[in-house]
């Protein structure tokens, strides 16, 4: 575990809960103490979701430097800051110190794997993106994104590793900015921003529309299977036949907002209004509790993937 901020600490907690030996490094003063506290915070939820045999927080070691952390690694997850020059130095150091053949997965949200591979001279073929979602100890999804120099064996090793620690990995077959999931989120944010800008709905009503509407179904089945089910016995073919033409009109009418300072201020004011009477720490605690309950229930229902 290289870099133990928000995302790295979540990964470390998950790996420990899955019974792995974790060696971490982060140069920031007090990082070890913060990491151990974050793992302690995450542990009760991970216990509820089920610890692997032999899982223990005692299996977390904090290394004195980056090469020492990865010298005996069987898998490296890099979660350092999202700054190009810093990633470059970090990945070059990691590549030099990690045994050949061992996958180095970067959590990077914004950088493409080929861009990261170009930052190292030694073994770029084992470098790929393994992109998680916050909170990374709970949200199962990880996007595996190979770069131009990736080899199938390393991609398979990453997919196997993530499956082995209980993640739901998807393979992104062509690198594109934002990988897959952030693009899907961006598509929704884009129209939400546009609707606010045009005065069609308030921020609060847009949030309510998703969290009380399709969002409830999307946590259980994806948008396309949901669309299939809304076609009744005719399935997706029927949905597309009778709702496809109007949906094409809606798609053609979607906005293309620019995130200007004025629009950003409008959105911030909208969220402030929405949360004006809400106890935010309490709301977050409730959300996290419900998230763990949902994950517990989903595990018992394998037909809901
Ligand atoms: N925050 C998110 O929601 C999110 C989601 C998915 C992926 N990511 C990605 O995860 C990565 C980490 O993001 P974050 O939100 O945890 O950031 P963060 O700022 O919380 O953590 C980054 C950590 O890297 C450490 N660091 C700095 N220099 C380092 C070095 N040379 N070696 C090792 N560690 C070093 C910092 O001390 C810090 O603890 C980024 O690439 C980001 O794109 C973030």
Provide a descriptive summary of the structure in words.
The structure is a single chain. The protein is α/β, with parallel strands linked by helices and 305 residues long. It has two domains: 6-171, NAD(P)-binding Rossmann-like Domain (Rossmann fold, 3-Layer(aba) Sandwich), CATH 3.40.50.720; 182-274, Orthogonal Bundle (N-(1-d-carboxylethyl)-l-norvaline Dehydrogenase, domain 2), CATH 1.10.1040. The protein has helices at residues 6-17, 31-49, 66-70, 84-97, 113-117, 152-164, 181-197, 203-211, 214-218, 223-229, 235-253, 261-274, 280-299, and strands at 22-24, 60-62, 76-78, 104-106, 127-132, 141-145, 168-171. Strands 3-4-5-6-7 form a five-stranded mixed sheet, sandwiched between helices. The site of nicotinamide-adenine-dinucleotide (NAD) has 26 residues, from helix 1, helix 4 and strand 5.
What is the element layout, followed by pairings?
Layout: H1 6-17, E1 22-24, H2 31-49, E2 60-62, H3 66-70, E3 76-78, H4 84-97, E4 104-106, H5 113-117, E5 127-132, E6 141-145, H6 152-164, E7 168-171, H7 181-197, H8 203-211, H9 214-218, H10 223-229, H11 235-253, H12 261-274, H13 280-299
Parallel strand pairs: 1-2, 3-4, 4-5, 6-7
Antiparallel strand pairs: 5-6
Helix pairs in contact: 1-2, 10-11
Nicotinamide-adenine-dinucleotide (NAD) binds next to α1, α4 and β5.
* Tally of individual domains: 2
Instruction: Please state roughly what percent of the residues sit in beta strands, choosing from under 5%, 5-15%, 15-25%, 25-35%, 35-45% or over 45%.
Output: 5-15%
Could you tell me which ligands this complex binds, including any ions or cofactors? nicotinamide-adenine-dinucleotide
CATH topology name of the largest domain: Rossmann fold
Radius of gyration from CA coordinates = 21 Å
**Number of helical runs?**
13
Relative helix content: 40-55%
């Amino acid at each position: 575990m290289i870099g133990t901020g928000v995302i790295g600490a979540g990964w470390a907690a998950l790996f420990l809960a899955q019974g792995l030996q974790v060696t971490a490094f982060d140069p920031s003063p007090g990082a070890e103490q913060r990491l151990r506290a974050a793992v302690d915070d995450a542990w009760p939820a991970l216990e509820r979701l089920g610890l692997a045999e032999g899982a223990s927080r005692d299996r977390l070691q904090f290394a004195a430097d980056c090469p020492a952390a990865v010298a005996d690694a069987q898998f490296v997850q890099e979660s350092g800051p999202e700054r190009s020059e810093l990633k470059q130095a970090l990945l070059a150091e990691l590549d030099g110190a990690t045994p050949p053949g061992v996958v180095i997965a970067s959590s990077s949200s914004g950088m493409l794997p080929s861009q990261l591979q170009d930052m190292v001279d030694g073994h770029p073929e084992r470098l790929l993106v393994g992109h998680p979602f916050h909170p990374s100890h709970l949200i199962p999804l990880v996007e595996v994104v190979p770069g131009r120099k990736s080899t199938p064996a390393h991609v398979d090793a990453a997919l196997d590793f993530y499956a082995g620690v209980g993640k739901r990995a998807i393979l992104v077959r062509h690198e594109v900015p934002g990988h897959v999931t952030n693009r899907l989120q961006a598509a929704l944010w884009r129209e939400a921003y546009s609707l606010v800008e045009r005065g069609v709905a308030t921020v609060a009503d847009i949030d309510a529309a998703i969290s009380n509407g399709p969002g409830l179904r999307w946590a259980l089945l994806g948008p396309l299977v949901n669309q299939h089910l809304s076609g009744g016995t005719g399935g997706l073919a029927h949905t597309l036949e009778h709702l496809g033409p109007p949906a094409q009109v809606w798609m053609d009418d979607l906005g293309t907002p620019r995130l200007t300072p004025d629009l950003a201020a409008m959105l911030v004011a909208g969220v402030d209004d929405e949360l004006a009477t809400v106890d935010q720490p309490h709301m977050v605690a409730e959300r996290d509790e419900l998230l763990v309950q949902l994950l517990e229930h989903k595990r018992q229902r394998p037909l809901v993937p």
